[in-house]
Amino acid sequence: MLNNHPAAGATWRDPSPAVPRGFSLVELMIGLAIFAFLMAMGVPAFTTYIQNAKIRSAAEVLYASIQTARAEAVKRNAAVEFVLTDDAGDSGSTQTATPSTTGRNWLIRLQDPTTLIYTFIEGKSMAEGSGQASTPSVTITSSVSSVTFNGFGSTNLGATATLAVANAAGGACAPTGPMRCLSVVLSVGGQARMCDPAVAAAGHTRKC
Predict the structure, then answer these.
(1) Which residues make Cβ contacts (< 8 Å) with residue 138, sequence separation at least 6?
(2) By the 8 A CB rule, do 138 and 54 touch?
(3) How far is CA 51 from CA 33, 162, 167, in A?
(4) Angle at CA 138, nearest 5°, toward 185 and 54?
(5) Number of Cβ within a 10 Å radius of residue 34
(6) How many Å separate Cα 36 from the centre of its chain?
């Protein structure tokens, strides 16, 4: 007869395999409560991030378009105009676009000095892209409605121009609000740079 009892001093082990144990209802409810808390804490921060990303995206495209207008003027050795407008930012508005200091769209166009007819070079609509609202929350407020670059890359401006980009849907601009609003500053000589108006430290590279 076999003796299944361990010898004196030996450790007895249950030969049956361990049965995995699931979550109890209390543990599940605690886990869901922690998840809900983390989501409640994270969603506002993520929303702010998305709204700030919209500002940066618009400012970067605006900056790149101004640079394109200047490069085209130098390449063609001709006057090229960058125009902010509320009209469509496409070739259909080349001749009739009305300049606006709060225009949501912009055009780059070349004017023939003899015929005074514009040639479309490039355009941009703030509502472009999948899922964009017909009236985007991002706004542009500029000290000028248009600027013309000559063949040397200089402008017809009398003073430095500032194009401010904001997003009211995300809140007020820093430092009073959560939005990191940006500006594109254009000098009389044609040099453009993107900066943060909330930065006040002297000598800071992002200071406007």
Answers:
(1) 54, 55, 58, 126, 165, 166, 167
(2) yes
(3) 28, 21, 7
(4) 85
(5) 10
(6) 29
pLDDT single digits (tens) 33-91:
777 666 666 556 788 999 999 999 999 999 999 999 999 999 999 999 999 999 988 99
DSSP state of 196: B
155: which residues sit within 8 A by CB, 6+ positions away?
147, 148, 149, 161, 186, 187, 188, 189, 190
pTM (two decimals) = 0.77
131-168: pLDDT as tens digits: 555 567 899 999 999 999 999 999 999 999 999 999 99
Token digits of residue 179: 């939005």
The pair of three-digit structure tokens given for residue 111, joined into one six-digit string: 């004017």
pLDDT of the residue at 140: 95
Homologous superfamily of 25-195: minor pseudopilin epsh domain (3.55.40.10)
